[in-house]
């Protein structure tokens, strides 16, 4: 492969006068662009022939890692394969060619899909009503908190300005509360990783609007005290909010509505196998118990990301009510299989049965000096996407692994073998691990520098000096 074509920016491949197209002769006359709309200088677009452009972007696309390429055990994010049949259904012209401003009577089929998806989500979660309008999980969280806030205000209870969030929560929980104008109160975890009910009692009062929880929690542990927690929160007049990020292992096992949750969102792009990553598209339907549907806010005049909802409904139909019950148990089985196969070489801070995911605290042998970051980078050399690292914040070297339910034993065995090999390398040749990756187009980047001083624009060479 020509590394010059492969590694360079498209601007660096530009040669003056080259074109990848030719337009037919102008048959329509000249219509000048109004002066106020004209550029003051040339756009500075690259000049390349079509073949160079095709090779450039095709080669770069091979750097993208997705669940279609290989195992993607990204803890907390349930990176599932998106079945091809779901893509085919959403691509049907009867759905894909719709316009949101079409006359109402022309979109009856799409409305049926939305209604049937809502009915399915109600049955799966135990909620009374759903809105499909939120565009992402975090958007769903904000919507759910807006519902809770509106509920309290409708009763004239204006003093409820606090949201209780566990110390193991996803970062979106406190962020969503803050955006909603609510203050965050943290509740601690016990040594077993679950919510400390005694600490919860000490912070519950009449100023609390809601408690946000993920169940299983971010450590992959089921919150066994949830009935007691829900009763305590409700006894103080507050509501229970369910963060649906970890709904996957609950499918076929239990429903948030039956646990005592009043409001929840679902990440369709996690639990129901719709596209995930790259900044979207996402979908975060919000469900509520009976009596709260009147507070659904108009966060969008349309039905959210309809094509994503279409995929999710096709996924639910393809499984059926019998097979959807196998999702949670199989995800739990896969996670425990990997955990038990590796806990002799990776530190497991909280032992016992996990659900869909679990957290190691780095390598068991700390004397090697090999960190979780090193392990993650070395995995790239072996063709695996790294798990989530340094989250949750409860452990210094967190390495969070989540295999989805549809991963085969052979795939997991290959991952286990590589993880064990890296643990051995950490002892016998630690520098190999510390300097990884070795087989990727670039090595380790300076994450701090990239975050503080990102280069997001490019200008052609000027006075023999490249300007950004």
TrEMBL record:
Pfam families: Aminotran_5, GcvP2_C. It catalyses: N(6)-[(R)-lipoyl]-L-lysyl-[glycine-cleavage complex H protein] + glycine + H(+) = N(6)-[(R)-S(8)-aminomethyldihydrolipoyl]-L-lysyl-[glycine-cleavage complex H protein] + CO2. It comes from the Bacteria. Its EC number is 1.4.4.2. Keywords: Oxidoreductase, Pyridoxal phosphate. GO terms for molecular function: glycine dehydrogenase (decarboxylating) activity. Residues 159-277 form the Aminotransferase class V domain. Residues 330-429 form the Glycine dehydrogenase C-terminal domain. The glycine cleavage system catalyzes the degradation of glycine. The P protein binds the alpha-amino group of glycine through its pyridoxal phosphate cofactor; CO(2) is released and the remaining methylamine moiety is then transferred to the lipoamide cofactor of the H protein. This is glycine dehydrogenase (aminomethyl-transferring). It comes from Xylanibacter caecicola.
């Amino acid at each position: 492969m020509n590394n010059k074509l492969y590694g360079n920016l498209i601007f660096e491949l530009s040669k003056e006068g080259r074109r990848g197209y030719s337009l037919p002769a102008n048959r329509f006359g000249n219509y000048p662009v109004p002066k106020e709309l004209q550029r003051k200088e040339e756009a500075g677009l690259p000049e390349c022939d079509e073949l160079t452009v095709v090779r450039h972007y095709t080669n770069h696309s091979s750097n993208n890692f997705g669940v279609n390429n290989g195992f993607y055990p990204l803890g907390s994010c349930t990176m599932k394969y998106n079945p091809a049949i779901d893509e085919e259904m959403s691509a049907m012209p009867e759905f894909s060619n719709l316009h949101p401003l079409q006359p109402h009577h022309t979109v009856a089929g799409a409305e049926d899909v939305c209604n049937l998806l809502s009915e399915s989500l109600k049955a799966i979660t135990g909620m009374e009503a759903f809105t499909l309008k939120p565009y992402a999980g975090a958007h769903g969280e904000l919507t759910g908190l807006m519902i809770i806030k509106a509920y309290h205000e409708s009763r004239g209870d204006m003093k409820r300005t606090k949201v209780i969030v566990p110390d193991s929560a996803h970062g979106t929980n406190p962020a969503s509360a803050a955006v909603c104008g609510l203050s965050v109160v943290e509740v601690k975890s016990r040594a077993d990783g679950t919510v400390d009910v005694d600490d919860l009692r000490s912070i519950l009062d009449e100023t609390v609007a809601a408690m946000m929880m993920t169940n299983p929690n971010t450590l992959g542990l089921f919150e066994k005290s949830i009935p007691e927690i829900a009763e305590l929160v409700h006894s103080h007049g507050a509501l229970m909010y369910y963060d649906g990020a970890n709904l996957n292992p609950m499918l076929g096992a239990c429903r948030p509505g039956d646990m005592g949750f009043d409001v929840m969102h679902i990440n369709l792009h996690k639990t129901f196998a719709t596209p995930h990553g790259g900044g979207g598209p996402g979908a975060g339907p919000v469900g509520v118990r009976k009596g709260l549907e009147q507070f659904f806010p108009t966060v969008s005049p349309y039905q959210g990301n309809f094509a994503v909802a279409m995929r999710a409904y096709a996924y639910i139909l393809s499984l059926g009510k019998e097979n959807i019950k196998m999702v949670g148990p199989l995800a739990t089985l896969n996670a425990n299989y990997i955990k038990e196969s590796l806990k002799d070489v990776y530190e497991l801070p909280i032992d016992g049965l996990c659900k869909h995911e679990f957290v190691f605290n780095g390598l068991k042998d700390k004397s090697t000096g090999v960190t979780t970051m090193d392990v993650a980078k070395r995995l790239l050399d072996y063709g695996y996407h790294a798990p989530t690292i340094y989250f949750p914040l409860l452990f210094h070297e967190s390495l969070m692994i989540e295999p989805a339910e549809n991963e085969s034993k052979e795939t997991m065995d290959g991952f286990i073998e590589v993880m064990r090999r890296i643990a051995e390398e950490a002892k016998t040749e630690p520098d190999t691990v510390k300097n990884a990756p070795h087989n990727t187009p670039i090595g380790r980047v300076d994450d701090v520098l990239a975050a503080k001083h990102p280069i997001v624009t490019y200008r052609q060479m000027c006075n023999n000096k490249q300007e950004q």
